Amino acid sequence: MTRQRIGRPVRASSFVGRRQETAEVKRLVAAHRLVSLTGTGGVGKTRLVLHAVPRLARAFADGVHIVQLAGVRDASLVPLALIEALNIRDVSGRSPVRVLIDQLQDRESLLVLDNCEHLADACSRLVETLLAETDRVRVLATSRHPLDVTAQHVLEVQPLATPTPGEPLPPKPALEYPALALFADRAAAVLPGFSLTADNQDAVAALCRRLDGLPLAIELAAVRMRALGVQQLLERLDRRHRLLADSADSASDDVLSQHRTLRAAVDWSHDLCTPEEQTVWARASVFAGSFDLGAAEEVCAGPGLDRDEMVDAVAGLVDKSLLVRDGDAVHARYRMLESIRQYGLDRLREDGGRAEAVARRRVRDWCLDFVEECERRWFGPDQPELVRRLHAESDLIRSAFEFCLNTSGELRAGLKLAGHLWFFWFATGALVEGRYWLERLLAAAPEPTVARARALWSLALMLLSQGNAVRAAPLVEEAHELALRLGDEAEAAHTYFGRGGALLISGDYTRARVVYEEALSRPPREGESMSLVGFKYVELAHVLAIQGEFDRAMALCEDFRQVCLTYGEQWIHSYLLRILAFAEWAKGDQTAARVHARECLRLKRAVGDVFGTGMTLELLAAVHARDGEGRPAAVLLGAAKRIWQDAHVALDRTPSHGPVRTEAEEGARALLGGGFKSAYQEGLDLTSDHAVAYALGERESAARPVLDSPLTRRETEVAELLAEGLTNQQIADRLVVALRTAEGHVERILSKLGFTSRSQVAVWTEGRRAIRP
């Protein structure tokens, strides 16, 4: 099965020129395992890569994965950034690099590492290791300088072509000189109706030459067409460029010249900003990756800038192309190009770094407030939205962790932040990242605090999900004793889930039952997580069902299901449904077990619970086997095995889960005989999403790729145009519809597909073309 995936893409405006470079990127990636695009800041390396990616997707059966590294400041986080982009949910406890090697061992994937220059050594080491340890992985990197890796092929991205001084322009200069075409395109965006004419084309050509053909500098200049004419633009830029050049050395190196040119353009853009816009630019430069308006208000408002001025300041920076708007019509996000961000940091550091420290502490405060709010809202109807938001803020949260680990007096805040993220890491299977931060912070902050108690049991939950009861048990007991010593009853109550879980996965059901019954003998404490209260019901019901007390187990599930239904909760509800289905299956009620197992899968899909999905697929396979349906049983067993293989864990062989799979497999083999192997292989070839669709009856065959689409015929047509790189206006012109109509189609496509960028739609479209019969 062809699997296309794109990781953390960004939205780009219309793409102009670079046709030959795009073709060259495609050729080089086909011929070399490592291709590095190099060039000065603002030359358009990222834009070129994002344009080329959809055209590369069909060549890689296991997908193209974009890893945005601009927001990663700590070199040790590079492997984790790849793990997130690859959507790896590994629970084995191995090192992140080992996880990547094993995941990519048999995959045919392209990894796109964007903005490597500030992490050059870490990227070089990781890329060299991955290329040496895998056979079919290829890497496309962008950096201002080549990576230090043997056998790489370097393509230096040059500025856009401009006319030679004194040379007569051809009849249609925009067709021959992409720098002029880019200026005309961007100027038309702020001055509707603008185009190259005989009256202005000489001035535009001179302007593009003065800007050395640098796309970013051209875009920044074109924005000023809202207030100035081309000749006025040229005169002001020429004067500013001469001043900057006179203050620098007289070196004629093209790179130095281009750097001065970009600096002149950015300097001028800064001078033309309002004081409020300048303040936001400087303070927002501490954001790693993208951010939303709420985060900007918390971090940037303050002395010299009122909160009610933020919207206008942000809008002004977007209008001037100094902030890029990402996200969709519902969830607006913003980001800075790296050259613009670095300029803002330089401005912020003009007071010796005091303003930067204040801004980074505000980022820390915002992350802590945000995560605490997410945890408060977690037991409710907003879980899918909270998962989406937490993924979107991952770069910002990582930067807060780095700040806490590297700044005196901030370790307790870091521990508190990590402890409040337990539910996200646990629910989504991001255990590698969870362990990474919890282990570092616990080692650095040994003081006996409530934050440490929570971090200890949070780490224990990560370890239990990885099947490591031996290490988890003492951690959760330490957390329990510390919470009692500090008089925090809620934190002490939180430890019961982990204490019983360590016994349960070890097969000590009698003692596990004692722990859970003791926990449920007391009412919830003030401040106790309702999710962890729910897990006590889940696990006690699980133990009871294993011990044959089916009716009591089902009654416990029904009791807390009513709580979940009242609150609109889905995650704990899905686990209750699985245990309910397990008890019904064990009791012999296959019809009820099938209904509840499928209902469980629907909820797990909504929340993204990969491991719960694997266990439920096995349970549903056992239901099919008992009902004499060997083929779906074998397919689902293979699909679950794929999940366990990708996670490098053997939950299917633990005492509490293994018997279900064993019976399902024995039953399916008896029913299918020699046909078991092919049906099982069909399941192994399924992604988790496709396996759930098959289990729910949304796919008739596991062997045939699904081309069914949620898009209408018109939306499919628009998606094809998005894959060609057309803007909304160009789509409207092509389809002869109003701009707002085209925008509405794009918004609905993003919503239906669950995407956040046009690049994802492009890769999705290319992937469907690749598997279309």
Explain this structure.
The chain has 773 residues and is mainly α. The chain is 64% helix and 4% strand. It is built from 38 helices and seven strands. The longest helix has 25 residues, at 354-378. It is globular. Mean pLDDT is 86; it is low at 1-12, 247-252 and 701-707.
| Backbone structural class | mainly alpha
Helix content: 55-70%
**End-to-end gap:** 13 Å
The number of strands is 7
Number of helical regions: 38
| Uncertain residue ranges | 1-12, 247-252, 701-707
Tell me, briefly, the overall form. globular
Relative strand content: under 5%
Major sheet: arrangement of strands: 2-3-4-1-5
The largest pleated sheet is described as: 5 strands, parallel
Averaging pLDDT over every residue, what do you get?
A: 86
Radius of gyration, in angstroms, nearest whole number? 28 Å
